[in-house]
Design brief:
rod-shaped, 141 residues, 2 domains, 6 strands, 2 helices, alpha+beta
């Protein structure tokens, strides 16, 4: 079967157009895969910044444990007037024996002692205290 040069030109043009279209689709798919990979890396990075790990590596939110002030550092009025900045993040307990209290004072009732590595939702933070949520109740640590 003999083809005319016009038919051959049309076939070659169709093959070239199809190849270009496939390369365009592949490029778009690779770009989307790269975007997803970048987004996943950003999520991992943000999570690492928020997380306090058990090996003492403190991230963005260091200092969640109950403070241990010396007697000359205690300001009773300041303890009773803790101002929390509202936040919405997660924190990990990075040591054993962290007291979870009713109120942000050393004299407040200890509700429980958080185990090392426990994850809590933090709803507020101050210079020395974190307000956490546990089973729809808010406590301080």
């Amino acid at each position: 079967m003999k083809m005319s040069s016009k038919t051959i030109k049309i076939l070659v043009t169709c093959v070239v157009v199809a190849a270009v279209a496939l390369m365009g689709c592949a490029a778009v798919m690779m770009q989307k895969a790269n975007e997803k990979e970048k987004a996943a890396e950003e999520i991992i990075k943000a999570t690492e910044e928020q997380k306090q790990t058990a090996d003492g590596d403190t991230g963005k939110y260091a200092g969640i444990a109950t403070p241990t002030p010396t007697p000359e550092e205690i300001d009773v009025e300041a303890l009773n007037d803790v101002k929390f900045e509202d936040v919405d993040d997660n924190i990990y307990i990075n040591r054993d024996g962290v007291n979870i209290r009713e109120e942000p004072t050393k004299d407040s009732e200890v509700v429980t002692v958080a185990p090392k590595g426990k994850l809590y939702k933090r709803t507020g933070k101050s210079a020395e205290w974190s307000r956490i949520e546990e089973e729809s109740e808010e406590y301080c640590t």
